[in-house]
């Protein structure tokens, strides 16, 4: 495998840090060309020094001077702002862009990378939720492959490689069920953010962990799978699998099912994406099948987890509605983390925004950005109304 030059968008987040963990074990195979973050300049500076990054970008331009000073005496070039991110990802010196920025903010730089023909290792599911048709169209137009980093989509991708082109009957997308899987609905309704942030299996950032607790994360993964694998949503089945050992399965017309299994460790799908088609050893825990004992599977409870139903509804309506769902969810999760709304307030805000936003059947990229803006404004108004009533 030839040495690959990598850009990591969102390097100070959970996926970004674990990508650097993989690179740390294979310094001979990767060169860090670009690291970006929102505002964590201390962590970004430490990463740049350790990996001798050629360029860094801090999106919060008020932290530019602090980052510049922290990297004084190095050869690392320091930039600020999202426009810098979008410009630098197009560099001829970059082979792979790891898109791990959280939320809608990852859309613009991912589009810039695709237009430049870069391989994109996609960890930012919101990009495909908000603008799946547009993003996949750009991938095809510019011959820019998108390799999934989400463990579930990496699993599906690996299963499809083993399928050798045979026709798929169904995709089984597994879900851990989150921290509230066994709770009654009344108890879930009063769940605090500290409770919701205690995921039983995965180490993730706060926003994604809350999305897992509501199962909105799984709903977004359904939408992502629809676009990544060009699969009708009625062929995508969500199954709750608390052990998180089977990361997803693909079923074929003869009833045969291929599953991808591994210990719950995000470094495994990360290494598969940035090293593809080679598999890189990462020192992770290997499966002990005798110790596993039994594996369990359940249908998701849409009454307890209405966010998952909203996602199916959004992709069923299509157009700009998934974008509206994503925008509303981002605003609502932020409000929940600020203790401004209750747990089920997240899905309430999202559902109301989906009804209020004007439907656009075939949105342009400009429509997507406008939908995101309008939905956030609507969500903020609904959240403020909830606070007044409480």
Q: Helices and strands: which structural class?
A: alpha/beta
- The helix count comes to 17
- Strand fraction equals 5-15%
Radius of gyration: 20 Å
Spatial strand order of the main sheet: 4-3-2-1-5-6-7
Q: Give the termini separation.
A: 59 Å
List the helices and strands and how they pair.
Elements (H helix, E strand, L loop, with lengths): L3 E6 L4 H12 L4 E8 L3 H11 L3 E4 L5 H7 L6 E4 L1 H7 L7 E4 L7 H9 L3 E4 L2 H17 L4 E3 L2 H13 L4 E8 L9 H5 L3 H4 L9 H9 L1 H13 L7 E5 L5 E7 L4 E5 L5 H9 L13 H4 L13 H12 L3 H17 L7 H12 L8 H25 L1
Parallel strand pairs: 1-2, 1-5, 2-3, 3-4, 5-6, 6-7, 8-9
Antiparallel strand pairs: 8-10, 10-11
Structural features, described:
The protein is an alpha/beta fold. The protein is built from 17 helices and 11 strands. Helix 6 (125-141) runs parallel beside helix 11, helix 11 packs parallel to helix 14 and helix 15 packs parallel to helix 17 (365-389).
What are the key terms here?
11 strands; 4-stranded mixed sheet; alpha/beta; 390 residues; single chain
Question: What does this entry show, briefly?
Answer:
The chain is of the alpha/beta class. It has helices at residues 14-25, 41-51, 64-70, 82-88, 107-115, 125-141, 151-163, 185-189, 193-196, 206-214, 216-228, 267-275, 289-292, 306-317, 321-337, 345-356, 365-389, and strands at 4-9, 30-37, 55-58, 77-80, 96-99, 119-122, 146-148, 168-175, 236-240, 246-252, 257-261.
């Amino acid at each position: 495998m030839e040495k690959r030059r990598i850009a990591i968008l969102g390097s100070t987040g959970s996926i970004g840090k674990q990508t650097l963990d993989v690179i740390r074990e294979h310094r001979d195979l990767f060169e860090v060309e670009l690291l970006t973050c929102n505002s964590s300049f201390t962590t970004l500076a430490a990463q740049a020094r350790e990996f001798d990054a050629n360029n860094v970008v801090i999106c919060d331009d008020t932290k530019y001077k602090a980052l510049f000073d922290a990297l004084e005496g190095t050869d690392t070039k320091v930039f600020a702002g999202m426009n810098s991110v979008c410009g630098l990802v197009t560099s001829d010196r970059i082979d792979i862009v790891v898109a791990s920025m959280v939320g809608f903010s990852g859309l613009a730089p991912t589009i810039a990378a695709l237009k430049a023909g870069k391989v994109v290792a996609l960890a930012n599911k919101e990009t495909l939720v908000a603008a799946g048709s547009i993003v996949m169209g750009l991938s095809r137009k510019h011959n820019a492959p998108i390799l999934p980093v989400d463990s579930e989509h990496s699993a599906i991708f690996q299963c499809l490689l083993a399928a050798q082109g045979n026709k798929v009957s169904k995709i089984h997308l597994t879900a851990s069920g989150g921290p509230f899987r066994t709770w009654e609905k009344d108890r879930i309704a009063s769940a605090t953010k500290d409770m919701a942030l205690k995921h039983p299996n995965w180490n993730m950032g706060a926003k994604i962990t809350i999305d897992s607790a509501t199962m909105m994360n799984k709903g977004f993964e359904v939408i992502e799978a629809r676009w990544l694998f060009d699969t009708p949503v009625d062929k995508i089945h969500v199954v709750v699998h608390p052990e998180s050992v089977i990361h997803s399965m693909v079923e074929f017309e003869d009833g045969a099912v291929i599953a991808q299994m591994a210990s719950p460790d995000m470094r495994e799908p990360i290494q598969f994406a940035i090293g593809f088609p080679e598999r890189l050893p990462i020192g992770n825990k290997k499966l002990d099948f005798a110790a596993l004992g039994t594996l369990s599977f359940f249908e998701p409870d849409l009454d307890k987890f209405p966010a998952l139903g909203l996602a199916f509804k959004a992709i069923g309506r299509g157009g700009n509605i998934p974008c509206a769902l994503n925008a509303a969810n981002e605003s609502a999760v932020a409000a929940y983390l600020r203790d401004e709304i209750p747990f089920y307030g997240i899905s309430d805000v999202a559902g109301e925004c989906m009804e209020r936003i004007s439907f656009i059947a075939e949105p342009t990229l400009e429509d997507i950005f406008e939908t995101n803006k309008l939905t956030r404004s609507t969500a903020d108004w609904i959240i403020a109304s909830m606070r007044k009533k409480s």
